[in-house]
Structure formats: structure tokens, C-alpha cells
Amino acid sequence: MAKIGIDLGTWSVAAVIVDAQGERVVPDPGNGQQWFRAAVAASPDGAWLIGQAAETLRVTHPDRYRDDLKRLLRTPAPVYLGGTAHPVHELLGVLVRRVLERAALLSAEPVEAVYVGVPADFEAGRQDLVRQALTAGGIRVPVTLTPEPVAAARAMLEGEVGDGTWLVFDLGGGTLDLALVAGRSGTPQVLDVLGTDEVGGFALDEAVVERWLDQLELGDAPEPADAADLLAAAREAKHQLSEARIAYARNPLRTGPRQLTLSRDELAVLARPTIDQAIEHARRLLAANSVQWRDLSGILASGGATRSPILAEALAALAPLVPLNGPPELVTARGLVPPPPPPPPVVTAPTNATTSSHNWDTGRTRIALWTAEDVELDDEISFERSVYSLAFSPDSRWLAVGLSNGEIVLIGAGGERITLDEHRGEVYDLAFSPEGRLASASGDETIRLWSPPDTESDDLLIGHDDEINQVVWCGRDRLMSGADDRTLRLWDGDDDTVIHDQRILTDLAVSGNQRWVLSASGDGALLWDLWTMSVVWRRGYSTTAVAFDPSHLYFAVGESDGELTVWTLNGFDEVVSIDRKNPVTMLAFAPAGDVLAAGSEDGKNVSLYAVRTGERLAKLSHDEELETLEFSPDSTTLAVATDNSVYIWRVG
């Protein structure tokens, strides 16, 4: 079975197909180039043209051509080609259909899945339009949308990497996408992403056109057809300057010299505002994660605009540039199709660890909407004490279980059990950091930090005056906690700061990029921006549970009256509202796929919902009332705690 990765860019469309024969690039049939121009034209004879063929028709029929479709997803206005209106997503669908047709010529295997890159700042509305474009393009198999810088990071750091921190700098025609990536113990991990459609290579093309028009001293603006020709000439000149010091282009206008020129020095002046904007966004991303330019192991530059020597020089002055293995236009497409799952890890447990019969496979298929109904109960793990909290380690090797007697039991992927027993009160909450450190919040009014599988705690945090019921990581060394003393505290090392006084917290959640924190209480839900330490969104109902989608696109809020709502993180638009009979007291997004698990302490069922539609995909039944639930980071397992048991459900 084949898989296809499509980078649906503003300037170009790149695609790869992966099957039993390996990976191949899908070329443009017009010129054999390894990527298509993201251009569409409606021929007078009714045919649709893309890529080089569309560029050729533009010369004679500019009113039937368009090439900046992805930027147009911001507005609902149609695109007119030859006087006929077309929704933007339908024109994108034309591009997708041609890619699929070309891909089908490269492989005899049927396509089982398609992976598509989207800019990091695409909110739910534009993601929906991308999905509509894929449907219009004839895709009838499961589709996964992945932030473009995440895919670029996967491609550029494929395989094992050494310890370090890299910046993915993906500057395309219409968007800038950034990712901060860390190598930890040989595995690359995306720490944070940032995207904007306010910065892109098209702005530079337009600046070149403005310069030429000033030089020509035209009294009136050029006709649309002439303006399109002039823009194409500007792009060609810019591309020439990747190799030459001076570029020459034919003047398409009826006035002035036959030849237009542009030097690299002139381009450097015109490019400076765009480059400065892009670097400022990168600086903000680094600052939000307490990283400086000198801390970077290197910059991984992708996207067509990064071909510019001017941009390369600016980036190289900040940190070393990592050489690319192939054209920058192909980087994101090559990182979209996930690699085969690794074999189950071999875990070495301390000599004092005990072994149970439990064993779960960390290399199974990731959960997705089309497999959610296939969940099955795999195991039940029993304890002598009540279970209050659960947490999976970031590599899915350990499931930490917090008990009423103060013990934390680490259950290994191979079935071994390790007990951590330094707390003197109930373990109400557990949280693993991206680096694998474990924080435990206890009724003994302390937080302990651990480095599993070590059985002695690394640190003890004291500051709350009552039982601590919530804890989350907000950075490499930062924690946020909530307690029955009605305070929300931010810990930086051993120092804590009270940032909010409110009613007793019922839940606390942090986004995967550790920029956003949701707090839930009888006062409602508050969304905190940790960059500014300010509340940017609130919902004034009695809130009992909150959760973030790991892809940084959504968050969910559960309320005491049973209502469950999903919101976009960009724009705070409501995606769906689900009415339940019982209060929603526990929520968890699946790390892969649009699936949300929800349960209630006074109920015995966990429901799996489709995030976008609210459709219930599955109901998981238990013999006792629920305490908490947690997905494993590899999306293979859902752990559900009842009074004295943990149920392990296969979800892939």
C-alpha cells in the first residue's frame, strides 16, 4: 500500500509517494521539475492546467490564471477565471487531483493514506477549507494534516541525532513557519512552533515590481495582464540572483527600455524588511523557550525563499546553517509521510523492580478517526489502594500511577513495576516533562520531581498551604500548580510566584508547545499566555475539565452541566458543542488524529468523539466509577483509572 505526502505551498506544490519500492518525487509533467508551480489556469477549451502548463497559458490569457491560492483562504471571496467564479478550495482541489494522477503513474500500489502540510498558524476554518480541497481533488482515503515546520524538522533530522537544539526556518512564498527542535538521547523532538502569513517571498516579488515601476516613471498603473507579466519577470530576476550578481529580464510593458535589471545589492535593500520581520518572529520563538541564538546547534532552512544568498547570509550570521540534502522545496513533502514505527523499546529496570503480566506494544498504528471504533480492552491492572492520577512518559515507556497512600507506581512497557514512595499524602496529579522528568503533586502540600526509573526524588518544592491537586510543566524547568489554598503558582526552579487567586482548581492543562495554560474552576475556564503572563480568553461557567490538542490547534472545555465544547486556539472560535448527561470531569486528546476522550467521575463510560463533528466514535465501559484517563504519546494506548484499577485500551 502506498502513502503520499503533499506540501500544498503558496509558490510550489511538492509531493512524494512512498511504497514498497521506496520514496519517489512526483514531477511536473510540463518540464520534469521536481515540484509543481502552485498555479492553476482554466483553458478556453474547458481543460484545467496546472504548473508549467498554467504558466504558459498565462502569457496569452492572464485572466484565466491564478497562483497565490493558499493566501486567498483567508477570505471567502471566489476567484474569477475567464469571467467564471470558482471557490478557492475547488481550485486547490484541481492541483491535488493532478498530483494524484501523476503519483498513480509512479506506483502500482493503491494509496492508503495521504499526508498534507499546513502552515503552523492555520486555524480550524482554513484547515477545513484544505480538507474540502482534498475532497474536491478526489481523495477518498484517510488524510492527516501536519504543521509544515514539524514535517520539515522530521525530514531534516531524520534518524537519530545528537543532543542539541535546532531552529527550522521555513520561508515560502506566502508564509513563514518556524519550529524549535531538540535532540534528546538520539531522538528529535519538536518543542514549539510559530507561523505567520504576514511574511513571505511574494512580498519581495512585489517590492521588485514597485522598484521597476518607479524607475519607468509611469503615469498610470499597468494593465492587469502587464502587471502579471511584470511580476513573473520580477520572480525570474530574483531566481537569477541565486547564482548571479546582476539579473536581466525582458520588459513586458510597451514603454521604457526593452530590458530591466536588478542587482543583488538592490535586492538586498528590498529584502531587508522581509528578512528583518522573519528573524524577529524567530527571535520571539526562541525567547519564549528561553533559548538564545548562541544556544542553537544550527538553523535548518527550507522553503523556496531560502534559496536566496541574501537570506542565507543573514541566517548564517546568527547560527550555523545546516546543509540540506536536496532542494529546499522538497523538504516539507519528504517529512510528511511518517517513518515506519520503531520496534518496541528494550527497558532496563532497576534490580528492585517487580514484574507483572502486563505488556503493551509501543509500535502500533496511531489512532485516527477511521480506526477509532476498533478499540479493544487489552488489560486490567489492579492496585490495593485507590488510583488518583495517571501519566505516560514522552517515549511511552512508562505509565506512572499515583495512589491514595502516597505511592507512585511506574509500570514499564515490558510489565515491570517500580515504586516511588517519598510522598506522605495522596498523589493527586502527575506530569512528565518533554525531557522525561516526572512531577508529582500531593496532599502532603509538596511537589516532588523524579527522573524515572530512579526511585529517589531529585527535588522537593514547598510553597502551597494546602493539598496540591494539579501540576503541569510550562518549560524545561518551569512548573505551574494549583492547590486547595485557592492559588495558582508558577515555579521557576525552587522559587514560586502566586499568579492568580481563585476558587479551588478542578483541572489544569498546558499546550504541547508550553506557551498556553488552561485553568478550570468553579469560576470558569481561563486561558493564559505564558509569554505575557496574561489571561487572553475566559469562559464564565463552572468548569470541571480542560485539555489541549497536541498539534496546538484546539482546546476542549468540560462543564459541570455536562456541556463539552471544542475551541480553536487561533481565534478562539467554537468548533463543536456536545451535550452530555453527566458533568465532564476528565478530558484527553489523542496525540494523533482528531479524537477526544471524555468521562465523568460519577459515570463508568468513556466516550471517544470526533473533534470536528462531535460524533461519538466509541464508548468504553467499565465496572466502577472513573477517576482519570490518559493517552500514551504514541497514540497506541488509552489508560483509564477507576477506584482500584487501571484499564489499558488498545486504540490503534
TrEMBL record:
<dbReference type="Pfam" id="PF00012">
    <property type="entry name" value="HSP70"/>
</dbReference>
<keyword id="KW-0853">WD repeat</keyword>
<protein>
    <submittedName>
        <fullName>Hsp70 family protein</fullName>
    </submittedName>
</protein>
<dbReference type="GO" id="GO:0005524">
    <property type="term" value="F:ATP binding"/>
</dbReference>
<dbReference type="InterPro" id="IPR036322">
    <property type="entry name" value="WD40_repeat_dom_sf"/>
</dbReference>
<feature type="repeat" description="WD">
    <location>
        <begin position="619"/>
        <end position="652"/>
    </location>
</feature>
<keyword id="KW-0067">ATP-binding</keyword>
<feature type="domain" description="Anaphase-promoting complex subunit 4-like WD40">
    <location>
        <begin position="555"/>
        <end position="627"/>
    </location>
</feature>
<dbReference type="InterPro" id="IPR043129">
    <property type="entry name" value="ATPase_NBD"/>
</dbReference>
<keyword id="KW-0143">Chaperone</keyword>
<keyword id="KW-0547">Nucleotide-binding</keyword>
<dbReference type="GO" id="GO:0140662">
    <property type="term" value="F:ATP-dependent protein folding chaperone"/>
</dbReference>
<feature type="repeat" description="WD">
    <location>
        <begin position="461"/>
        <end position="501"/>
    </location>
</feature>
<dbReference type="InterPro" id="IPR015943">
    <property type="entry name" value="WD40/YVTN_repeat-like_dom_sf"/>
</dbReference>
<dbReference type="Pfam" id="PF00400">
    <property type="entry name" value="WD40"/>
</dbReference>
<dbReference type="InterPro" id="IPR001680">
    <property type="entry name" value="WD40_rpt"/>
</dbReference>
<feature type="repeat" description="WD">
    <location>
        <begin position="420"/>
        <end position="451"/>
    </location>
</feature>
<dbReference type="InterPro" id="IPR013126">
    <property type="entry name" value="Hsp_70_fam"/>
</dbReference>
<dbReference type="Pfam" id="PF12894">
    <property type="entry name" value="ANAPC4_WD40"/>
</dbReference>
<dbReference type="InterPro" id="IPR024977">
    <property type="entry name" value="Apc4-like_WD40_dom"/>
</dbReference>
